[in-house]
Amino acid sequence: MILLANSEAYPGIEASARRLQAGEEGLRALVEGIKLVELDPRVRTVGYGGWPNVLGEMELDASVMDGDNLRTGAVGALKGYIHPIEVAYKVMTDLNHEILVGEGAAIFANEIDAVAGNNLIEDSKQVWWQKLALAMTPEQQAAFPNVPLAPLSNNATDPERVRDTTVFLSSDINNKITAATSTSGWAWKYPGRLGDSPIIGAGSYADSRYGACACTHTGEMSIRCSTAHAVVLYMKMGMSLDEAVYEAIRDLDYLKDGYTEGVTIHAIDCHGNHKVVSLNCPGNITYWLWQTGMDKPEERQAEVIMTK
């Protein structure tokens, strides 16, 4: 068994590891761990305590994927609910759909009695306005929100580089490989923006025959390259895990225009190997790993590749 997650996973990684160790089905183990991350205001880019969009509204994204049957569930731009990961899981189990967004996602969340709540904490609200105000004239501040939003969304960048989506990957006692993600998305994003997290194949992908992959940071890049699916596809084509991740890094590095900052790839294969590589994300990039035989998850250093 193996469990791999990014640095933001610390509130829930141990719970997921214990559940896997006890023989629980992999995807439920991941969902329960991520719910603890969503509840923890120390994690400023997931769930409660995350960053709002340019209008000061919390829009949450999440996804799950079962590698045994390739079923997925995802929600995007969900407002008013504490656990988007649980709603995404229920999309997979209760609907003949794979993704719900916006108002439809909220209607479904209410229908399944998901935990409702306001995820915007006072500190996030204050930081949101302080940063936003710097990008506006006094006249625009007085007229807000009846001002052009695109320039504000482009100018007000994320206060926490790299640390964003939480991603969990696992292979359970039955060798089922699964993936799950949750995020509040890019701070000050344009309303309705979806990153890669709820887009299966971009931000996450799992196939028990080969492996799984999930990405963090600049979701726009992972969307353009279908990075998560690409890593799994490269393994299907015969590449090793390391080769597959490096090939996906080359895909990302090919992007020359648009918003291209950096992406961190987290991946596992069906043989119990793992690989975490960060492209153009400076600083201390870490991840969490637990495997059969380990007492508890360990925080480790990711490989960092800088090309600009």
CATH class: Alpha Beta
The largest sheet, given as strand count, sense and whether it forms a barrel, is: 8 strands, mixed
Number of helices: 10
Runs with pLDDT <50, length 5+? none
Helices and strands in order, then pairings?
Layout: E1 2-6, H1 13-21, H2 26-39, E2 60-66, E3 71-78, H3 84-94, E4 99-101, H4 102-111, H5 122-134, H6 138-143, H7 150-155, E5 166-171, E6 177-183, E7 204-207, E8 211-217, H8 219-225, H9 227-236, H10 241-253, E9 263-269, E10 274-279, E11 286-291, E12 298-301, E13 303-305
Parallel strand pairs: 3-4, 10-13
Antiparallel strand pairs: 1-5, 1-11, 2-3, 2-6, 5-6, 7-8, 8-9, 9-10, 11-12
Helix pairs in contact: 1-2, 2-3, 9-10
Please sum up the structure shown.
This protein is of the alpha+beta class and 308 residues long.
Structural commentary:
- With 308 residues, the protein is α+β, with helices and mostly antiparallel strands.
- It has one domain (2-305): Glutamine Phosphoribosylpyrophosphate, subunit 1, domain 1 (4-Layer Sandwich), CATH 3.60.20.
- The protein is built from ten helices and 13 strands.
- An eight-stranded mixed beta sheet has the order 4-3-2-6-5-1-11-12.
- The protein is globular, with a radius of gyration of 18 Å.
- The mean pLDDT is 95.
Key phrases:
32% helix, Peptidase_T2, Asparaginase, Glutamine Phosphoribosylpyrophosphate, subunit 1, domain 1, 308 residues, alpha+beta
